[in-house]
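Hi, here's the filled form for the chain we discussed.

Project: internal
Contact: R.S.
Residues: 383
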Amino acid sequence: MPAGKIAFIKQGSASNVNASVASMLAQTFPEHRVDVIDTGDWRDTIAYKPLNRLCVYKEFARLILSRRKPARDYLPLTRYYYDHFRRSLIGYLTLEKYAFTFQTESHFDASVPGLPHFVYTPYVNRANLQQPGFDRRDLMPPSWIDLERRIFRNAARVFTFSRYVSRCIVEEYGCPVEKVVCVGVGGNARPELEETADPARYARRHIVFVGRIWEQKGGPTLAEAFKRVLTVHSDARLTIVGCSPSLDVPNCHVVGKVTLGETNQYYREGSIFCMPTTLEAFGISFIEAMSHQLPVIGTSIGAMPDFIEEGRNGYLVRPFDVETLAARLIELLGDPDRCRTMGVRSRELVRERFNWKQVGATIRHHIDGYRNGEQYEDTAASR
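And the returned structure, exactly as it came back:
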């Protein structure tokens, strides 16, 4: 591929993923310079125009009247915003000569006519319907679903974090199956993969939870399950990182929000990672825990079946199933050797598939193939 520049268009940090993606693109395409374009400032300029405010109440009246969210949350989601934002992006991107453009998430359309454009997204709105923690009253109106559909139509390829999102884009949005490719994702808080875990940690009966939204991430289910764990393993501990729920549970330590770097220490000290989430775009904290050689317990929804191999590196339980979750935790906390074996398999999976080097290699394969006019065999249907 001739040397040139890549435009990487993002909005904010996206839970630290965008910094990892920018680094991945730079390492994957060393012959190109990566221009990172954060469109956050443009967002407010367009969103607060008087006409856009009127469009919010026209397009999102049902959601606003039901008080699901405040009206301001819908300002960057109107047709008016979509069209003006796209025109602004096209004007900006045509000032330079790019080899291709690459955007994360599907909130906007950064495609430029005549220029190869690629989308990398963890979720789409209609994928929420498959998750038990989603309130159907929060589903976006048909006007927004149509805009999402346009984003995928204008992309040369749509890369996804998980197979279930790939299937949804094909089945719910009518995107051609050959256009959608599940490439996975890497972790953000990650150690060197050659780092050796302390074998003694698996006998400490220490459960670690990392998540920002306690209820959505299944925190109440975990708290109830942990109370049952204590009746068998009275010395078990639970550490909650990323949020600050008010709990009255013995041996439970609420850490709250910490930096990305500090999160690594809690993974290192754990025996098991557990997050019984009920609504999840992907669950990158699982990949981070796996890279730290932890067995993982999650729920059988969304992307988790992609990286939790039942009985090999962890377990999948049904959402809200306190009894089964407690049983799995009790089983693993009582068997340090099994925890260690599962932790080894977790790290093997990260080395094989869920790391930014591998994600980048897969993305490059498909981008190079598209630009060379090749046909794809590895599609969303086959992954």
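Let me know if anything looks off before we file it.
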